[in-house]
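ZP: hey, is the adenosine monophosphate complex queued? I don't see it on the tracker
AM: it wasn't, my bad. submitting now with these inputs:
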Amino acid sequence: MRIVLLGPPGAGKGTQAKRLAYELELPHISTGDLLRQNVSDGTDLGKLAKSFMERGELVPDTLVTRMLEARIALGDVKNGFILDGYPRNLAQARDLDNILRSLSMEINIVFYLDTSTSVIIQRLTGRLVCKTCGANFHIKNMPPKNTLLCDNCGGKLYQRSDDNEDTIKTRLAVYQKEAASLMDYYKGKNKLVNLSADGNADAVLNKMLEYCSQGLSPKGTDPATR
Ligand code: AMP
């Protein structure tokens, strides 16, 4: 099963993608994580991407799409994947379809995690990420036992440099500019499931798992309204 998670920054895509990946035994592919890895490894891609990321702007499509294509070419995606952070615009959605078509694959289901702006700001400004395993914590909502260390692996926790209020505002504006056309695209393909992600993370996960086990509704029925 090939699943895409859409939603504004702070919707919980990363957290939910990791949990879905665990439950469904599928790899979690996050373009943000892949880009951050390139930045910290000092690769050519990382050097090009860094300033865009620091400003909260999108890294040019060609760079990100090439990176994703290389990731999807790895053998571990043969049973599917959970894609988080891609596509970010219509051009990327079309590129993704083309990449998958060339591999005789397609996206099966797209979850849109709907989240209010106040919740987003609160979540992102308090977010802590593990440098080693990528686990997410929150200073108030999901505090680690030790503020500086990851509960799962003992790795160092850090605050992402783009999780500050100014950059968050740019990221939200960038997101909102592209979101409607992206959602229309998947709605038109009868693949979009709209879920409110303001509340309890377990409830959101369970809802997603339910949809995954049922597959999508028949053509013509909008799963977002079920
Ligand atoms: P994320 O971890 O998904 O919040 O992404 C962090 C940053 O990486 C974004 O603000 C962008 O600068 C960049 N990025 C991640 N995914 C993409 C993408 N699909 N297209 C362009 N830029 C991206």
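AM: back. The domain at 2-117+172-225 is CATH 3.40.50.300 (Rossmann fold).
ZP: great, adding it to the tracker
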